[in-house]
Predict the structure of TM2 domain-containing membrane protein YozV.
Amino acid sequence: MSTCYVHHDVDAVGTCVGCGKFICENCNTEIKGKNYCKSCIDELFEENKKKIEKLEDHVKVNQPMVFMNAGGGGGASSSSSSSSSSSSNNGGMLGAHYTKSKVVAGLLGILLGGIGAHKFYLGRWGWGIIYLLFCWTYIPLVLGLIEGILYLVSNDDDFARKYDKGYRRMAG
Ligand SMILES: [Zn+2]
Ligand SMILES: [Zn+2]
């Protein structure tokens, strides 16, 4: 006759479904018709506790991330000053609200891309400064030209979604 793995002098009444070891009446805990030894129950509780903790962490970590993504991840204070008199770009017929014109951004990129003018216009000050610092290499000039053309050929919605922080798509 097999004996309990904890109490070696007591006869086992069954085996634990968690670890498969023999357990006595004293060590046995029945959950939903299944036998568990004490250490397996502890483990089950620990596991559940960890799962709950993990879930809580997940929620805590994810919520601010959503907000950060919505902000464009620029880091710098979002420019409220740059929303000048560009209300003429408000495409009422399209049911969308634009605060940046892709034509202006495109022309700035093509004409003044070497000093990052299009980046400044789009509120990307960090990039604008980088372009400005490296203007003597002529690389920003080429990048600005390419970006300007890309702005001009992209469709309004795609451009706004990528570059316009004030862009709002109207419902309906
Ligand atoms: Zn067990
Ligand atoms: Zn026992």
